[in-house]
Amino acid sequence: MAAATGIKEAKNILRKELKRRLAGMSVELKQTESARVATKLFAMKEFQQSKRISLYMSMPNEVDTFGIMGKIFELNKKCFIPHYIGPIMKMVELTSMADYESLPLTSWNIKQPADNDDRADALETGGLDLIVVPGLGFTSEGARLGRGKGYYDSYITKSIKLGLKAPITVALAFSIQMCESVPISDHDMIIDHVLYAD
């Protein structure tokens, strides 16, 4: 128990440090690094071969995913985005950029379907090939520090329990989000690929 408390405390300290670093980044640098990271993603064979991709809706301190969404539609791939209802996260399909534009804004200032917008979870329609995962901090080996809710860890575990193939996970990061090490617990997933602007 003491070890778990220590890990939790270490995560909270690192979260504060990473939020401080991100707050100091200029809008221009975020845009430049976001574009570089998106280029790296598009060059990956895993991205090119994936037909069903889920994408987080970026907040101001995250690598921007808006252009990536446009690319997914341009390539005729299926695009899924998170739909949070309480402690549960589903990945629901977007049909077009116009569909995205029509979504309401949440209190986090990101778009997501309304609670009564009944869209099927990707897990009910064949699973996902690739999940683009957000986070606060990463190591180049794939350790990830999220925001502490465990949404993505739970979702991937659920996917595997349902007998679906495990999706490839790709994290997108600004260079200042890369860490020498990140404290992780047993239930924390390791990311397959961490892409960052170097």
UniProtKB/TrEMBL annotation:
Enzyme kind, highest EC tier: ligase
Alphabetical keyword list: ATP-binding, Magnesium, Metal-binding, Nucleotide-binding
GO CC terms in record: mitochondrion
Gene Ontology biological-process entries: folic acid-containing compound biosynthetic process; tetrahydrofolate interconversion
Cofactor requirements of the protein: Mg(2+)
Sequence similarity: Belongs to the 5-formyltetrahydrofolate cyclo-ligase family.
Name of the protein this chain belongs to: 5-formyltetrahydrofolate cyclo-ligase
